[in-house]
Design brief:
By secondary structure, the chain is mainly alpha-helical. It has a domain at about 5-45. The protein has 3 helices and 2 strands, in the order αααββ. It has helices at about 5-15, 25-45, 75-80, and strands at about 85, 90. A two-stranded antiparallel ribbon has the order 1-2. It is flat and about 65 Å long. The model has no long low-confidence stretch (mean pLDDT about 90). It is an enzyme of class 6 (ligase). One of its GO terms (molecular function) is glutaminyl-tRNA synthase (glutamine-hydrolyzing) activity.
Length: about 100
């Protein structure tokens, strides 16, 4: 297990914008050490020739045709627009 001191744990917490009480830093340092130890253990595994997996069960992802549609509810979508005209979003002109 890798050793992480409380100063390093405090610095990591600060960088992550996580407020950690001073009395909780030793436990956090120990937890960080355990995580790094696990990562070191994983680096020892020989993965040469092993294909990456998407799932533990071999299966193909469901696919659909890539077709352009209006979503089947243009009125509902346009109801959220501050300004809609002739079935489209209306925006102010930005180029003269």
């Amino acid at each position: 297990m890798s050793e992480i001191d409380t100063e390093t744990a405090a610095r990591v917490a600060k960088l992550a914008r996580i407020r950690v009480a001073d009395d909780a830093l030793p436990a956090l340092a120990q937890e960080f050490g355990a995580i790094l130890g696990f990562i070191e253990q994983l680096q020892e595994v020989d993965v040469e020739g092993v294909e990456p997996m998407v799932s533990v069960t071999p299966m193909r992802l469901k696919r659909r045709e890539d077709e352009v549609t209006d979503g089947g509810m243009p009125e509902k979508v346009l109801s959220n627009a501050p300004d809609a005209r002739e079935g489209f979003f209306a925006v102010p002109k930005v180029v003269e």
